[in-house]
Amino acid sequence: MAELHVKVCGGHTRPVCHIDYSGVCDGSYWFLSSSHDSKPMLRNGETGDWVGTFVGHTGAVYGGCIYEGAEKALTVSGDYSAKIWNCLDGGCLNTWTHPHYVKSCDWKDDRVLTGCFDKMVRLFDSTNYDTEPIQWMPHENVCKSVYFLSHGGVLTVCEDEIAQWDLRDLEKPVRQITVDSLNCVDYVRQHQNLIVAAHKNGVSLIDCDTFDARQPITLEDVECASISPDGQNISLGSRLLVKEYSVDGVIQRSHYAHHGPVLHIRYCPTGETYTSGAEDGMIRIWPTSKVLASHENEE
Question: WD repeat ranges (predicted)?
Fold first, then answer.
């Protein structure tokens, strides 16, 4: 059972811009925090306790992901590199050098995906580090997010456009949608088949199969958002607040959160908590409205 108070995790000295959770492995799970201080950290997902710091980047770390089984991790940085790490001893297993800042990444099966500031997306083979990557330019602007979709395709995101690609034919996207003033797009393969788009007017949910979109939350100043594993709730971060809504747009909880804008937010794999990272360099783990309501009903 999740605890009923917020857990505050220190350690970073610069903004925390990305959170990624592992799946549940042997009854436990972990999360990886990416920060502009160049030192991504691995933590216990239930307690927030520090497990280790991956040392080797020389620039801001913009994103990362934990590989299946939680024994390896991938991070990308402003030092023009993507690195694979051993989560058991913290050692660097491989470095792929890029021509510019690397802003985003994902890892599925034996394939690694990176989005670079040179506008190119690259697909690497994680079983053969020396293989030349497949690369293409999905948008006219810089690609700010990349994801492997659950059905095998790829999702790319720029400033105002989301596109789906079939890796067998990269001449043009399978489908695409325009969303004005995108701040953050979140997608978790293990949760729901939905893309969560946080933008200047609120939060939109986009079906991965059809790209049909609906906007359950209308709200200014949304920096980031995430959907719960059961698809029933949406957590979001703004300039000062963390909020949780039902998927129909009814607010459940609102918390004063960080001393600066919330840059990323994501639910844990069990759905009992969600974690926010912010410009103040802090990480906070919040109990969900469902957990809090269950406790209140017991009293």
Answer: 255-286
Query: Environment class of residue 75 by beta-carbon count within 10 Å: exposed (0-12), middle (13-18) or buried (19+)?
Result: buried
pLDDT tens digits, residue range 265-277? 999 999 999 999 9
Picking from 207, 256, 212, the residue whose alpha carbon sits closest to that of residue 227 is 207
* Distance of alpha carbon 88 from alpha carbon 96, whole angstroms: 21
pLDDT tens track for 36-94: 999 999 999 999 999 999 999 999 999 999 998 899 999 999 999 999 999 999 999 99
Question: CA-to-CA distance for 119 and 130, rounded, in angstroms?
Answer: 22
Q: What is the pTM of this model?
A: 0.94
pLDDT higher than 70, residue 1: no
pLDDT digits (tens, 9 = 90+) for 212-236: 999 999 998 899 999 999 999 999 9
Identify the sign of the CA torsion 123, 181, 279, 206. Answer: negative
Q: How far is CA 236 from CA 146, 188, 272, 281, in A?
A: 20, 15, 15, 18
Q: Where are the domains of the chain?
A: 7-298
Given a contact cutoff of 8 angstroms between Cβ atoms, the answer to whether 208 and 149 are in contact is yes
- The closest alpha carbon to 103, from 85, 86, 119, 123, belongs to 119
- In degrees to the nearest 10, what's the CA dihedral of 268, 218, 289, 284? 50
CATH 2.130.10.10 describes domain 7-298: yes
